[in-house]
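tmp note - NB-ARC domain-containing protein
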Amino acid sequence: MAAEVSAAAAVVGAVSQVKTTIFDPLRETISNLKKLEEVHEALQDAIVSLVSRREEHESLVQKHRATKMPSKPYIAWAGKVQRIEQKVKSFDTKYGIEVKKPLYRSFLSRSKLSEKMKEKALEIIPLLNEGSQFGSRFESMLVDKQPEHVVKMAPPDIKNFPALQRPLEQILDLLTKDRVKGIRVHGALGTGKTTMMQNLNDHSQVSEAFEIVIWLKVSTEGNKGNISNPELQRAIARRLILHIEGSNHVDEVAERIRDSLKDKKYLLLLDDVKQDLDLHQIGIPENQGSKIVLTTTIGHVCNSMVEEVIKVGKFSEDEALNMFQNVLNFPNLRDNPHIERFLRKVVQLYDFHPLRIKLAATAFKLRGPGKEWWKEGFKDLIKWSRKGDHPMKKMYDLLQDSCDNLNDAQKNCFLYGTLYPEGTDIYEDCLLDCWSAQDFIGGDDDVDEILRHLKMVSLLEEGALKRHVRMEKWMREAALFILSTNVGCKYLVKTSETLQEPPLLAHWKDKEGISLADNDLNRLPDRPDCLVLSTLFLQRNPNLIQIPASFFECMGKLRVLNLYRTGIVSLPTSLSNLICLKVLYLNGCSGLVSLPPQIGELEHLEVLHFRGSRVSCLPPQIRSLIHLRRLSLSVTSSSGGEINPEDCVFPYSEISRLPKLEELFIDIKCRDRNKMLSSVITNTATMEKLKIFRLCFLDEAEVVIEVVAATPKIPVPREANLITFLGKIDETLYCDKFQVFIDCEISNPQIPKPYRYNRFVRYCNGKWRDPPISNILDKADAVELFNSEEQFLSDFETDGMDQVQHCLLESCKNIRSIVDGYMNCSILGNLEHLYMKDLPKLESIWMGPMNGQLQSLSKLKTLVLIKCPKLIMTLSHGVIQQLSEIRHLEIRECCGTEDIISGPSSAGLDPGVLPKLKKLVLHDMPNLERICPDKSLEWPSLEKLEIRRCPNVNEVPFTKSNAMKLISIEVDRCWWERLNWQELQVKERLSKLLPPVTFSFSHDSHELGKRHLARYMCGLVAMLMLALLINFS
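out:
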């Protein structure tokens, strides 16, 4: 009998397309067994066959484990097999006990055990059936392996490092914003961007929000750009477990990737991006809810795909100390005051830079924990920082890689920054002057672009002051190390070393750049051999009083000379040898009282600064400086004190004869600014090339005129300065074109299409009754007013601002209306565009009677009102008649507005009003009830209507015969369906103008749909199986 069972099981295993009826003989055979021994043997044979089947399948699973994974039905089947195998083993134990008992004593228990083993054997039959089906249908047992939801990276914990934790929290917050699709994380080399991104990858909030997180290393160390698109595609395919071995074309692979990510909400983490990426070409789809975060040292990379930028900087002192302690793995290290003192020195030495501190701490780790250990270790670190030995060599290698990615001009400009003392904030204009003066700048090189690029790649950082940059301490040390390893090193840099004596003459020879800045030099050598010297920095040596007469004799190629804040009292006659000099800084030389006649022989000089000196007059030879572009000077008395305007002898004739002068900065030590401004501005107004003109008075108030594309831009800190300026300046300077910024910085106008307007005024935080303010407003054709204090725009004491065509009012807390009807003169008769935003007290456009001001607002084409909560009605009957030219009417977030066109009915209102209105926009007004009291208006030109989130509007003012030019309607669908329609024909006509309905499903509804589909498919499969079984039977 057992042989029959085994044979039947073998038959079952050999069948490829199994039918339930095949098992009937086996089931019947097992059911008819009587003896315990036969039942046990049959059970053993059945379980052996089942386990063998499972092992065959498991062998197949292991063979394909790299690309395939067991299907859910197979996993369920294997689980059942395992459970039944364990149960059969328990029966073996019980069977062993029963067969040892005398038959007469175990008859009942043997019978009971036999029945249970029969039941278990019968349970094996359908499992054998199911297992055979897996063998014949490979795809039912193994499916494509699914990528992990998140590949954990187990990075270091950054919770105790706010410099990294804060950016991480910012990113997590931004990932919840629908408007943000891409985030760029920008920072210098070694600041921890990758570590922070790894923490983002592993964060629970990320795993909960996204279906899959994909990490890509976009570039490799030492390369200028990203790895190739095919390499990126292969990395993505590995992450998604796609088989692309036979796909050789990038477009084919991209389609595979796109199909794999279809409908998935993904987070793409791109580490170390060095160039712009075309994600579409790679195959990354733009799925709803998906996000991209990238890290880079280049500030402008991938601008088109990011909405937010986050900066990662260096550590604070406490963070640096914590990192050092963590690397050493000495938890109580800082409890020792002696060691903590050394620790602070170490982290300061390495400028709180995360990677440098980590490397230094690693080097310390092999030493013992004693006090002497710290002393010796600190000495070693100082030596390493100077010589570039271990452990800082890696930092220098990183910087060398960055330098290798620069072109020659960019690299030379970067290395030029090492001439400035450590920690110096460098004024950008001065740096650009110095770069431009050098031989290494070619004719096609743009120094502004070079500066922008060096900042973008984090080789130069923003300084503490506006328009200043600095080179980070470690960056400068690494750059000096690179220069020192160069056999042809051309720089001599000894800054901030309290030097009193200059370097030996031999050290000056063959140098292209020498910097002895920030020292205590009291003398300079006679006639140093500097035939190739291009730059000489001697700034901030206050004890340097005298320059030897022959000092400049062998410096014929010198292009930049910086003597800022030295103690010199005169310049030697050998200055005439500097025939190539382009930049000369004498500013802050308070002991200098005159310029020598030899200044005129510097015919290539482009930049001359002696502001803050006591030079009271210019030699006539200054006229020979025909290439001078920038000049700064002080107008002082011979004693250096305040001057009397009547006694001032200003060198107008000399300055006005400088044909290429573009920037002029005059520091005037005089309290009577009115007279000085009148004199200075009048005498310099004829200089055609002048683009930027700064005047600084004794009280440090500064008036700036900046001419850009022939338009003077004038930022004025206070109204009094403008009063003086407007009262004295020649009208020809500003009448045709000007931009005036009162109590605010120069910036681009906020008005749309500002290029249309030649005379622009932005006025902040002031009262506009002062005559000079009114005068300039009368000449302006575009005006922006912020934080004004008046109640009516018509409160200007002007001629009506008839030139103004565009006006923006924002955050004017007291303004109640634009036009005061009780005034007898018209205002803003040529105004075409009026924008009003954040006006908390605005009650109306026009307040009072209409008589006497028939021209006011008569040409208005655009009216936009945003966040005016007290505006109950927008257009009264009188105002609507006045606005016959209006084409665009837009009202948003005016929570108090109840009517657009006021009145209980439109009786007496011409149906043809608003004849040119083309667009009407109404958004976010919860109390709005009516657009128009009735439907008599013709709306003859209306083409576009937008109404959003205005729930209390119950009808629209349209009939079968009006608004016949409407071509577009954008509304909330639910609101549209709730409207009261007296004529269904009107609804049908207008509904055709709505955009087509689109459906968007949430993730939950999408999953629900998939479950319904799965149930439907299961039912369909069951019906097909039933049909097949019926056919076979």
